[in-house]
UniProtKB/TrEMBL annotation, chains A, B:
<keyword id="KW-0119">Carbohydrate metabolism</keyword>
<dbReference type="InterPro" id="IPR050005">
    <property type="entry name" value="DenD"/>
</dbReference>
<dbReference type="InterPro" id="IPR036291">
    <property type="entry name" value="NAD(P)-bd_dom_sf"/>
</dbReference>
<dbReference type="InterPro" id="IPR001509">
    <property type="entry name" value="Epimerase_deHydtase"/>
</dbReference>
<dbReference type="Pfam" id="PF01370">
    <property type="entry name" value="Epimerase"/>
</dbReference>
<keyword id="KW-0521">NADP</keyword>
<feature type="domain" description="NAD-dependent epimerase/dehydratase">
    <location>
        <begin position="3"/>
        <end position="209"/>
    </location>
</feature>
<protein>
    <submittedName>
        <fullName>Nucleoside-diphosphate-sugar epimerase</fullName>
    </submittedName>
</protein>
Length: 327, 327
């Protein structure tokens, strides 16, 4: 099996690559070729016996999409995107990469046209929803994004469903919860604090909490995200049905729940490294975010997320910190 | 006020033009200029004292959109589209006109960029919904189109909301019910029979009914459609709010309701001109269509549709037949 990952150098892309290499296959099928694409060169995974190609390329450049699919990958993960904040700040770049790039990819697959019909797994986002919404968002709730990023993802979902219905490929769009705990450095994303307040204290560093502890949001770990992607790759198109965009399961919890889990696992000393510095801008932004989903369809399709924030903290300590932390 | 109508030569475009000319203004504002655009030359309306330009142009051709908005119309009706059947039969043409053409228009407005912010009224469709759905579709129901046309309209809605949110223009997308009774000749649209069984018998002609009388659907007259467009043009953006795509009110009724109304108004002789010739293809297509909407938001915003099919038949006889029919 030949797998193409677009967005392979990002956090989720790298973890997915490592997981696929460790598994050696997906479903019952061995992987013999990996094509890893991103705007920067993706790392070559260690320990893979098959063929690996890495390519630094911009999907929104004419000709790139055609090159990527010319090798007729059986499975395509399309994870590449300009993130929410940047797509909002740079209108043209967001539409060029997130909308045009996605459409170029879909059209390049379509234009092969000789029965080639790969599985395409597209990462969408809960940003396709926009406030006001109910406390728990059902599967049949409408998408009224309040960002250009959310708009671009919602359009990608629509295209993917139509192209799948037409038989050009066999797609599935999965709306990831907010990934937490994100490894790496604190970033300026408005959602960054959800991860920062766990990651930094476990590293012996202070972290800033800019919102009230009562703030509720929707989470899954990076480990769960990789599990979602692998599961999405193996579902049958018939099982998915014509509605190809799916809200995934996640964990609905408050910042207080996060902190309680951190305290149970790492103790009061670690929790004391969280500093409360309210930020009105972040408070306002986060106030418009979804707090929970009733992800019935995805659960029936076998997608599984964490059931407690303790699991999310444990996954972070195991996967990123070698099982230890700074007490 | 300067009004641009794109799709001005179509049935709704011509009726809208005539209504605007008859009214002389919209809201409290007099109309001093009309720009009428379509792929074929639109007729010049009689009795208009202001300036009229007609232009035969294809919105999907590079440069057309820029030309259309260079005159900075205050109000733009974007009615132009490849219809459902053709967009399904010709994938490239449907996406080129219905998606790219719409985006070119929106971007041409955006790129003027000096505070120019016209009202844009975009005709969407109940084809943004795809079966299965509840008997009555609420305002917050998700859009899962089952045609490329419906997909293109749903994408147009998303773009319009995002561009409006960004302040590039002040848009509203209205999801028209099936327009009935359509004037003119019978056409091959799967929905054609809903109109044919009223229009042809009133003209002394036979008409074919290809489905059961129990089939229920969602209707508004051409007269109501013109009313929707005029009302959409005058609503304040604040009243519409950030969710710029709206399902309009209509009349939910069955084919039997249609026939009963025709009998009450025109008698048994006229009804006897309806011939029952079941068509499995049309039966299957129509089975996937929406039957009713709870168009709460639109009703609150003041959109008004017919309350009975008798009203729809009367509107047809008055507006198209000079008040008479072939008994």
């Amino acid at each position: 099996m030949h797998i193409l990952i677009i967005g392979a150098a990002g956090m989720v892309g790298r973890k997915l690559t490592d997981a696929l290499v460790a598994d050696g296959g997906i479903g019952a099928k061995p992987i013999d070729r990996l094509s890893l694409v991103d705007v920067i060169e993706a790392p070559v995974p260690a320990g893979f016996s098959g063929k690996v190609e890495t390519l630094a390329a911009d999907l929104s450049e004419p000709g790139t999409a055609e090159r990527l699919v010319a090798g007729r990958p059986d499975l395509i993960f399309h994870l590449a995107a300009i993130v929410s904040g940047e797509a909002e700040a740079d209108f043209d770049k967001g539409y060029r990469i997130n909308l045009d790039g996605t459409r170029y990819l879909f059209d390049a697959i379509r234009l092969i046209g000789d029965g080639y019909c790969p599985r395409v797994v597209f990462t969408s986002s809960i940003a396709v929803f926009g406030a006001p919404f109910p406390a728990t968002i059902p599967d049949e709730y409408f998408t009224t994004p309040l960002t250009s990023y959310g708009t671009q993802k919602a359009i990608g979902e629509l295209l993917l469903s139509d192209y799948s219905r037409r038989g050009f490929f066999d797609g599935i769009a999965i709306r990831l919860p907010t990934i937490c705990v994100r490894p790496g450095k604190p970033n300026k994303a408005a959602s960054g604090f959800f991860s920062n307040i766990i990651r930094e204290p476990l590293n012996g560093q202070e972290a800033v909490l800019p919102v009230a502890e009562s703030v509720r949001h929707w989470f899954a770990s990076p480990r769960a995200a990789v599990g979602f992607l692998k599961h999405a790759a193996t579902l049958s198109g018939d099982a998915i049905g014509p509605r190809r965009a799916i809200s995934l399961p996640g964990l609905s919890c408050t910042v207080a729940d996060e902190i309680d889990a951190l305290r149970r696992i790492a103790g009061d000393n670690v929790v004391a490294r969280i500093k409360r510095v309210p930020d009105p801008t972040i408070i306002r932004i986060v106030d418009g975010w979804a707090t929970a989903f009733d992800a019935k369809r995805a659960s029936e399709l076998g997608f599984v997320a964490e059931k407690s924030f303790d699991e999310i903290v444990h996954a972070h300590i195991e996967d990123e910190l070698g099982g230890t932390f700074v007490a």
